Amino acid sequence: MNSEIWNRIKQKKFRVLASYKEDMKDNFANFGKRSQKYSSFGPFYELYMYCFTIGFHSNKRVSLKSIKTDTFNSVFEWRNDHQIILKNFVTILICKEDIRNEIGFDFFSLEKLNINEINKIIDRLTNVFEEFANGGFEMLYNAYKKNPEAFYDFRSLFSFFNSIVKN
Questions:
Q1: Which of 6, 55, 144, 146 has an alpha carbon within 20 to 30 A of 137's alpha carbon?
Q2: CA-CA distance, 24 to 21, in Å (whole number)?
Q3: Could you tell me the residue ranges of all domains in the chain?
Q4: Is the pLDDT of residue 17 over 70?
């Protein structure tokens, strides 16, 4: 991936639907907490990447236009190994032809783009990433609200993911 594009992506603060953020963070991200009622992740961005995977695999996207959103840490603040995982997710997105066409990304003309064109592509790319992540959040949130006890077990998030993959 072009280092200019990656450096600009690392400056981004990803958006999450405000209606999900606190409830999901309180229940599934335990960074800085001693105990957790439900199966959980550490920092919120781990949960965000998990939800991206669910949304992407299910092809579930939630448009963030006209909806109240919130942001969290920029990618620069993520642990390095998580930045590498995010880089792989971004690569997966731009490898899909329909997404490349949607965002106007062309590998062959990448080096010829000016900074404004690069920024537009990055905005569209991160928007698609956010839509998949929020699609996954919606799926997890709905499953959690329907049956919170199902998430007590430490394997529950793995089981939920497996149920998505099997469909």
A1: 6
A2: 5
A3: 3-158
A4: yes
